[in-house]
Amino acid sequence: MAKGQRQLDALSSALDLLLEVRDARAPRLTASPATDSFSRSLPVWAVLSKSDLADPDATAEWIRHFKGQGRMAWAVDLRKGVPNALKKAIAEMRPSSSSKMVYREVRLAVVGTPNVGKSMLLNGLVGRRAAAVGGIPGVTKGVSWYAGRGCLVADSPGILDPRSDARVHRMLSWISSTKGQVIGSWAGLASECVAFLQGRGLVSGLAGTWGIDASGDPSDVLERVGRRLGRLLPGGLVDIESSGKALIEAISAGKFGRLSLERPSDPPPWDELS
After folding, report:
1. Containing H/E element for 119?
2. With bands split at pLDDT 50, 70 and 90, how would you rate the model's confidence at 35?
3. Structure pTM?
4. Are residues 141 and 196 in the same domain?
């Protein structure tokens, strides 16, 4: 991570713009640590991906929040491509011929924590089969640049791990931004997730989609999930680990409807975990 940060620091003087991709369901949780050092020297725009899975009212609050900070912000479903409005805004940043700089494409980098849509945004800007255009003289060695329409996009170094707080990692597993099986048992992660959603009043989708009672002790909820999905062990016992994995995967995929884990006015959501 330290090497990647040094590469980005050296790259920053060559950039006109940084696009930070966050998951619209958890914009604070999926904030990239790479942006802190850039926000003082160049524009950092927020791209809230997976907006089709998030509560639209909460997403609108986040857009207002970022714009209130003086940042451009976009809510997008990158499976449908990069919105033309975002492409146009990037093109309008192109250095003008009246400046001291030679007329050229906008240079930008795309950053984001794992599985938020960084690659989808980069591909949408330059095309899936785009070839690297080579290095730029005087700019960090080892950085690949890809040509898009009116822009050059740097393939940013891999420094995009989320913060080290274990509670943050556990919450990120709920939306597949980190690997749940690496940081804990599926049953433990799912039980903690259910308790959080119950506290926020966000379990109606679970009850409606799978037709189970989502109230009460989270372990009981997992028991009901297992019986509903047929995740049984010999003797008719519920495979709680398999049930937890199924629940987390369903939440991540948006099978229980559009929900957001946080709003701008909320305290950091991981503070609710022990």
Report:
1. helix 118-126
2. confident
3. 0.89
4. no
Token pair for residue 121? Answer: 């945004």
Query: Would you say residue 8 has pLDDT above 70?
Result: no
- What is the per-residue pLDDT for 135? 60
55 vs 87: CA distance, rounded Å: 25
Q: Give the bridge partners for 20, in sequence order.
A: 46, 111
Alpha helix (H) ranges present in 46-83? Answer: 56-68
Question: Which of 102, 123, 154 is the last residue in one of the domains?
Answer: 154
pLDDT tens digit sequence for 157-176: 544 455 568 899 899 999 98
Residues 149 and 176 in one domain: no
Residue 138 within any structural domain of the chain? yes
Looking at the structure of the chain, the number of domains it has is 2
Closest CA to 79 of 57, 55, 112, 49: 49
Taking CA atoms, 192 is separated from 29, 60, 151, 170, in Å, by 16, 27, 43, 9
Q: What are the angstrom distances between the C-alpha of 251 and each of 37, 110, 124, 209, 259?
A: 33, 26, 26, 11, 9
Q: Are residues 186 and 144 in the same domain?
A: no
**Would residue 101 be called left, alpha or beta, if left means φ above 0 and alpha means ψ between -120 and 50 degrees?**
beta
- Structural domain boundaries enclosing 210: 166-272
How far CA 185 is from CA of 28, 115, 190, 191, 244, in Å, comes to 24, 20, 9, 10, 8
Task: List the alpha helices (DSSP H) in 152-271.
Answer: 166-174, 180-183, 186-199, 204-210, 218-229, 240-252
* Model pLDDT for residues 80-105, shown as the tens digit of each residue: 999 999 999 998 887 655 555 556 78
The answer as to whether 159 is a domain residue is: no
Give CA–CA dist 116/161, Å, rounded. Answer: 12
Cα distances from 71 to residues 64, 78, 152, 164, 217, in angstroms, run 10, 20, 21, 26, 41
Q: Which two tokens stand for residue 170?
A: 């556990």
